[in-house]
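Worked example 2:
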Amino acid sequence: MKPDEIRKIEAYLRSKFENKTIKVQARPRKDDSAEVYIGDEFIGVIFRDDEDEDLSWNFQMAILEIDLDEV
């Protein structure tokens, strides 16, 4: 993903979730996705989907059972 694209997605996520600590960072050796963090904690990956006529991004986040025990 391009740096300007990453900045736009980061701004969107920060606005949507009202959280200024969300960071989106390029992935090493991958150009179709970026990593998403809240502070220093990795929370998921955004994948760029440009196979159809419409460009979109898909956010994937795994929730582990042990994470639910912390709530």
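The chain has one domain: 3-69. The chain has a mean pLDDT of 94.
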